[in-house]
Write a structure and sequence with these properties.
With 412 residues, the chain is α+β, with helices and mostly antiparallel strands. The chain folds into three domains: 7-97, Acyl-CoA dehydrogenase/oxidase, N-terminal domain (Butyryl-Coa Dehydrogenase, subunit A, domain 1, Orthogonal Bundle); 129-239, Butyryl-CoA Dehydrogenase, subunit A, domain 2 (Beta Barrel); 243-394, Butyryl-CoA Dehydrogenase, subunit A, domain 3, CATH 1.20.140. Helices cover 48% and strands 14% of the residues. It is built from twelve helices and ten strands. Strands 1-4-5-8 form a four-stranded mixed sheet, with helices on one face. Strands 2-3-7-6 form a four-stranded antiparallel sheet, with no helix packed on it. A two-stranded antiparallel sheet has the order 9-10. Helix 9 (323-348) packs antiparallel against helix 12. The two termini are 16 Å apart.
């Protein structure tokens, strides 16, 4: 794998970094620019989004046809990390979950008509979206085979009954991707649907309170009581819901990791700046061996995370699925983010526990990272399953074709 990036990717990274420094960080520092849920206020966001779009920094993950820049996953890894130096960064560039994952999967699998109807408004920033899969017990969570929400075919429509919860962004979403059971087939029993928030037959039961800051639209519990969805709004095909989830969630997990690396780096940045100036017992914190070891270890762990993310991105860009690589990155980076925030708070002391910095925000946010898109234990189980199947081949290196190169790069 070639770890150099193209001049084009570096140009995007540098311009994103400059935009974050000059335009987003000042908003982050101004509490009047925050909403009641610990996110950037929508009027402030819309102004920054217009600036980002004007500078060609909008929807980098999509192709030019849909208003993007056509970056591959390697290029996205570089740029998403730079975006999330600020807690408000990704949403400004239309690269935040859940819209990010929804746009990528719609671009990949939707029909041309569906892309115009459901993708383009999200890509243009006119609407937000949500992905409705997770259910309360005893329904499906990490194991989608347990899904209880049902969609029954009636003529040219499907009628949906059931319940979903922890659906990110639902309260602000207009376009939804919904997973529901259409048969009892073990592999072909689930189907993905598209529906608009204005459709009757469903409601938001509640916006679930959480310990951390919230994305726009929160994390909601939804009840379906006869929602009717036209057959033309089936996504990818009847019975292909499991394949849809695999297509969407793998890259979405990886983009989470890309962003989390930026937050981990920001935590280290704040910790280092404080340690350089804070005096105690006649010595700067930055000169104490214990503090230097903390920061040095975090620097190493962030670089390990970057390598895991980049390998997974490279594998996807060259046409692979990268299941193992994504699982390893997800576990490592989720735990790293929590450790980085915790260590930075410890170095900052009471200041880190206050709201004078964003460290406490990152700390509260970081705890969810070990749960969303598959808990640590699920990914470790999947890695053990791969190890059992592949044996020593688990660690194999890809071999270039005769006369070819085994290295990789960005897919811009």
């Amino acid at each position: 794998m070639d770890f150099t990036i193209s001049p084009r990717i570096e140009d995007f990274r540098a311009r994103i970094a400059a935009f974050v420094e000059a335009r987003i960080l000042p908003c982050e520092a101004d509490r009047s620019a925050w909403d009641a849920h610990g996110n950037i206020a929508l009027p402030v966001l819309e102004g920054l989004r217009a600036e980002a779009r004007a500078q060609g920094l909008w929807c980098l993950q999509l192709s030019p046809e849909w208003g993007g820049q056509g970056l591959g996953k390697v290029g996205m890894a570089v740029c998403y990390e730079a975006m999330n130096r600020s807690i408000f960064g990704p949403v400004v560039f239309n690269s935040a979950a859940p819209d990010d994952g929804n746009m990528m999967v719609l671009e990949k699998v939707a029909t041309p008509a569906q892309k115009e109807r459901w993708l383009r408004p999200i890509a243009e920033g006119r609407v937000r979206s949500a992905f409705a899969m997770t259910e309360p017990h005893p329904g499906g969570g990490s194991d989608p085979s347990m899904m209880l929400t049902r969609a029954e075919r009636r003529g040219d429509r499907y009628v949906v009954h059931g319940r979903k919860w922890f659906i990110t962004g639902a309260a602000e979403a207009r376009h939804f991707i919904l997973l529901a059971r259409t048969s009892e087939d073990a592999r072909k029993g689930l189907t993905a649907f598209l529906f608009d928030a204005a459709a009757p037959g469903w409601r938001i039961e509640r916006r679930i309170p959480i310990m951390g800051p919230e994305e726009h639209g929160g994390h909601c519990e939804l009840v379906f009581e006869g929602l009717e969805i036209p057959a033309e709004d089936v996504l990818i095909g009847v019975g292909e819901g499991l394949r849809l989830t695999q297509t969407r969630l793998g890259p979405a997990r990886l983009t989470h990791c890309m962003r989390w690396l930026g937050l981990a780096g920001r935590a280290v940045e704040i910790a280092r700046a404080y340690a350089e100036t804070r005096m105690g017992f006649g010595q700067r914190l930055a000169e104490r061996e214990s503090v230097r070891m903390m920061l040095g270890d975090l620097a190493m762990q962030i670089e390990v995370g970057r390598l895991l993310v980049m390998k997974a991105a490279w594998e996807i860009d060259r046409g692979g699925y990268a299941q193992k690589e994504v699982s390893m990155a997800k576990v490592h980076v989720a735990n790293l983010l929590h450790k980085a925030a915790d260590t930075a708070i410890q170095i900052n002391g009471a200041r880190g526990y206050s709201t004078d910095t964003v460290l406490e925000w990152i700390y509260r946010y970081a705890r969810q990272a070990r749960l969303v898109d598959g808990a640590d234990e699920v990914h470790r189980m999947l890695l053990d399953r791969a190890l059992k199947t592949e044996g020593a081949g688990f660690w194999r290196w890809p071999v270039a074709q005769e006369g070819g190169e085994a290295g990789g790069g960005d897919a811009a």
